[in-house]
Amino acid sequence: MGVKIILIVLDGLGGLPVKEGKTELEIAKTPNLDRLARISATGLHIPVDHGITPGSGPGHLALFGYDPLKHKIGRGVLEALGLGLELKETDIAVRGNYATVEYRNGRPVVVDRRAGRIPTEENRRITEKISKEIGKIDDVEVKIAPGMEHRVALLFRFPEPLPEGSDKVKDTDPQRTGVEPLDPVPETPEAEKVARVAKELVGRVAKIIKDEPRANYMLLRGFSKKPELESFEEKFGLKACCIAVYPMYKGLASLVGMEVVRFEGKSLRDQINVLKKVWESYDFFFLHIKGTDSAGEDGDWERKVKVIEEFDSHLPEILDLGPDVLAITGDHSTPSILKSHSWHPVPLLIRSPYVLGGTSSRFTERECLKGEIGIIPGKKIMNLLLAHALKLDKFGA
Amino acid sequence: MGVKIILIVLDGLGGLPVKEGKTELEIAKTPNLDRLARISATGLHIPVDHGITPGSGPGHLALFGYDPLKHKIGRGVLEALGLGLELKETDIAVRGNYATVEYRNGRPVVVDRRAGRIPTEENRRITEKISKEIGKIDDVEVKIAPGMEHRVALLFRFPEPLPEGSDKVKDTDPQRTGVEPLDPVPETPEAEKVARVAKELVGRVAKIIKDEPRANYMLLRGFSKKPELESFEEKFGLKACCIAVYPMYKGLASLVGMEVVRFEGKSLRDQINVLKKVWESYDFFFLHIKGTDSAGEDGDWERKVKVIEEFDSHLPEILDLGPDVLAITGDHSTPSILKSHSWHPVPLLIRSPYVLGGTSSRFTERECLKGEIGIIPGKKIMNLLLAHALKLDKFGA
After folding, report:
1. Which end of chain B has the smaller Cβ count within 10 Å, N or C?
2. Interface contact A374-B374, CB threshold 8 A
3. Domain boundaries, chain B
4. How far apart are the C-alpha atoms of A295 and B188, rounded to whole Å?
């Protein structure tokens, strides 16, 4: 049996004091994590740079060992991944917003850039209608998926891959009301084809939904292509899988070529069952836990504490699998008091037979400050995991 | 009211043990700083690089968020700023040293490169004489300001800006005695004009001061132009001012486009009064305190302790202004036992509502090592201040 490395990402893990000077991690009762912290290497990581608050894309790229400043993921691509669209090399991804326009002298004028934030149900109905009626544009297939409220993701699937620069098309969202939507203007000659398709799409969509009371137009933003990334397996020689519930994280894992394990259920219990089931089939297991981030974003520190405690209760089962290397961290901090992602360093724990240990009595922001890893760039974590798995050669003689 | 960020620079803040194993900061009685340290983010910063002792120029550039390795400030420019000369885009700045020469067969031969370190008073008298008699060189105005002992700063003010490379003129100081001064040789074609002006200047000065017993010649070093720096306001979107007593620091702040507040008096008391007076007019306040560095340079640790204690006594007044973000640090360390700048990391404290805190019981070198900031490059501090002011957008979606 080969090496087994588990990377557990508690999304938005890091926090700030919420009650009596204590953070969510400090308030949580985590006997199993505490015990593990005492025999592990601990530290913190900075996903992008000092003071920089990362989105989920850069945060995960860093954890996967890619430089998030070098490899950028477009907004359209991220939206498509988040809404569960499977992205191909031949796709251009775009984020769409339903909007309300009025026609003056036959020209559309934006009166609400978000169509009054229509209910998600209404979005679903309208999106389905478009999906049925839109048809092909020349030889380009159109995929469309409803998001929350007024948001959708679109894919233009071309018959073959487009050249570098073909996604450089300007947003049609004018960013203010009382004016006409902008044209999807190509910024490079390579982008002319995509711009033409986008313009035709906008026209067709406007016809299909012209009688909707609110969502009678669509604005486009964030034209982007799937980024070209060396695969995780090529880069690190590890056969990797992703065990995640939310489409965004499955999408990010698939961008670097991890196999996304399909399974029923949405609970951590379900995820651990899957982990056990596929244990023999991979070298590297990326387990994504969303609840910490959602609770932080909602400013609900008590729920964040509960998610951490729930994770703690399942930790022994994960340890029982006997991974060679186990890492526990987050893709960024989401302090409940900020109700958003933040720039704060993220607690990190690495367990292997080759650690000092004995530096931190718990797995918290402040205890991790005392640890042997220090505060490191997120993109260096993969180096450490490979090292602890004894998979890296000596550098120089 | 917009955001309010205060950056307090205690020049040469960091120290080394001077008595019973304690540093100046550890010996100082600082109840207010101690209290603040306990509720702040702490750490240390390295202004330039590990092991590198920074001058005041690089130290401050880093604190202002500029890469000190990328943006170099010439010796002539620094001398001019330090002596209070106002530098224009059309200026070439040079450092001058009075020297003693003997004429052999009508040719000057250097016998003392520093003119016996003449008293500053003598320098002032001679410099004033030159200033009166030197006149214009072609269309070039000459400004000259006396420094300490044998040092002066010179500006050649051209009618219009000179091209890139125009300041590449070799020093005329031969770096040893018994030989002729060197010619100001241009190293690029663009520098020929400046070299001609410099040669003419040396000749005229030699005539004006030929009868002085010691300072009868002038050697030139460090030809340089004002560096082209993106302004602080463009870079960070903050309207910034400088509240400093010494010309050098006002000059450094003006290089990045900060407004230098003019005021009467030289004490910290005066500086804090000014801070209060201009509080509504700016977003960012750079407060420079010189005493810590001067005491360190003199090897007078007791005086350094006193300056720190004096600052501590004024801290509550600064806190009462209610800044959104307050940073306290130094531009480098100046340990009294070294009597000079040093390479040691500099204590750093950041207070905002978004810190962990609780890591350091005092604001000292050793306590800051326990803090949540870690040891970071000086040039990253501005990122953190902007983040804590919630002025940075998320990176990636």
Report:
1. N
2. yes
3. 5-73+228-388, 77-225
4. 63
Across the interface, do A54 and B397 touch by the CB < 8 Å criterion? no
Closest Cβ–Cβ partner in B355, B357, B374 for A375: B374
pLDDT in tens, A193-207: 999 999 999 999 999
Instruction: Determine the distance in angstroms separating the CA of B368 from the nearest CA of chain A, rounded to an integer.
Output: 12
Q: Nearest CA to CA, how far is B335 from chain A (Å)?
A: 26
Residue B393 Cα, gap to closest chain A Cα (Å): 7
pTM confidence score: 0.91
Chain A CB within 8 Å of residue B358 CB: yes
The CATH class, in words, for B5-73+228-388 is alpha beta
**Averaged confidence pLDDT in chain B:** 96
- The rounded distance, in Å, linking the Cα atoms of B158 and B298 is 39
Are A17 and B372 in contact (CB < 8 Å)? Answer: no
A335 touches chain B (CB under 8 A): yes
CB contact under 8 A, A68 and B396: yes
AA letter at A73: I
pLDDT band at A395 (very low <50, low <70, confident <90, very high): confident
Of B357, B372, B380, which has the smallest distance from its Cβ to A51's Cβ?
B380
Instruction: Provide the residue type at A286 as one letter.
Output: F
Residue A284 DSSP symbol: E
A153 touches chain B (CB under 8 A): no
Q: Which two tokens stand for residue A237?
A: 């020689």
% of chain A exceeding 90 in pLDDT: 94
Look up the ipTM and state it. Answer: 0.89
b/e burial code for range B107-129 (CB count within 10 A of at least 16 → b): ebbbbbbbbbebeeebbeebbee
How many Å from the N-terminal Cα to the C-terminal Cα in chain A? 29
Contact flag B356-A17 (C-beta cutoff 8 Å): yes
Residues 48-67 of chain A whose Cβ lies under 8 A from any Cβ of chain B: 48-59
- For residues B371 and B349, give the distance between their C-alpha atoms in angstroms, rounded to a whole number: 9
DSSP A307-325: HHHHHHHHHHHHHHT--SE
For domain A5-71+229-388, the CATH class is alpha beta
**Where are any strands of DSSP class E within A196-353?**
217-225, 240-243, 259-260, 284-289, 325-329, 346-351
Cβ-count burial B259-290 (b if 16+ within 10 Å, e if not):
bbbebeeeebeebbbbbeeeeeebbbbbbbbb
Tell me which chain A residue has its CA closest to the CA of residue B43.
A369
Interface membership of B380 toward A (CB under 8 Å): yes
Report in angstroms the alpha-carbon separations of B23 from B15, B305, B343, B368.
Answer: 6, 9, 16, 13
Name the nearest CA neighbour of A331 among A316, A342, A315, A323.
A342
Give the pLDDT score at A392.
87
- Cα dihedral sign for A156, A158, A160, A165? negative
pLDDT digits (tens, 9 = 90+) for B17-41: 999 999 999 999 999 999 999 999 9
Cα dihedral B206→B207→B209→B215 (10° resolution): 20
Chain segment B109-120, per-residue pLDDT in tens: 999 999 999 999
